[in-house]
Amino acid sequence: MKNLFALAALTATLQLAGTPAQAQAVPATTATADEAAVKLVLTKYQQAVQKLDTAGTHRLFTANSQVFESGGVEGTYRHYAEHHLGPELKEFRAFTFSDYKAAVQIDGPYAFATETYTYTIGLKKDPKDKEAKAPIVRRGVATSVLRKNAAGQWQIMSTHSSARTPRPKK
């Protein structure tokens, strides 16, 4: 976590101090390719959640990643997947995303992503219940910091998500 704060402070300092224009310039094709690669990582994670299966998703995260969800510190992604997300997904019949949008900003070997979406969770029917419970619908947002590793692959270092009941449309 200290490294994340140090990175943010360094980035802010460099932006305030300014750097020569040619040092700031990133070829558009590289930035576009990196943005697409980051969005692909985010999409792979989203698809795994929709499949209700976290198998292999640890590769999308750094070993020392940090996950924060709705005010809670969940630890590394491996811990989160084993102790929170994985068991939770087993209780679901379906998990779908809609109204999804992602914005990505590349800064050297780091990427900063913001995702907004609506998700709907269908719970499994409890044998004791006559009917299945109503679906859970939430409006969510996630911010993530990704780093390009030595192999050129983008991985999530830190992610924070929160959600709330959608506001009624006026």
What secondary-structure arrangement, pairings included, does this model have?
Layout: H1 2-17, H2 21-24, H3 28-50, E1 61-69, E2 72-75, H4 77-89, E3 92-107, E4 110-123, E5 136-148, E6 154-164
Parallel strand pairs: 1-6
Antiparallel strand pairs: 1-2, 3-4, 4-5, 5-6
Report on the structure:
The chain contains 4 helices and 6 strands; from the N terminus they run αααββαββββ. By secondary structure, the protein is α+β, with helices and mostly antiparallel strands. It has a single domain (2-8, 27-164), classed as Roll (Nuclear Transport Factor 2, Chain: A). A 6-stranded mixed β-sheet has the order 2-1-6-5-4-3.
Keyphrases for this structure?
170 residues; alpha+beta; Nuclear Transport Factor 2, Chain: A; six-stranded mixed beta sheet; 4 helices; 39% strand; NTF2-like_dom_sf; DUF4440 domain-containing protein
Largest sheet: 6 strands, mixed
| Structural class label | alpha+beta
The secondary-structure element order is: HHHEEHEEEE
Radius of gyration, in Å, reads 18 Å
Mean of all residue-level pLDDT scores: 86
Strand order of the largest sheet: 2-1-6-5-4-3
Shape: globular
Q: What is the oligomeric state here?
A: single chain
Low-confidence stretches: 1-24
Shape-level CATH architecture: Roll
Protein name: DUF4440 domain-containing protein
Keywords: Signal
Signal peptide: 1-23
Domain DUF4440: 41-156
Short description:
Keywords: Signal. This is DUF4440 domain-containing protein. The chain has 170 residues and is an alpha+beta fold.
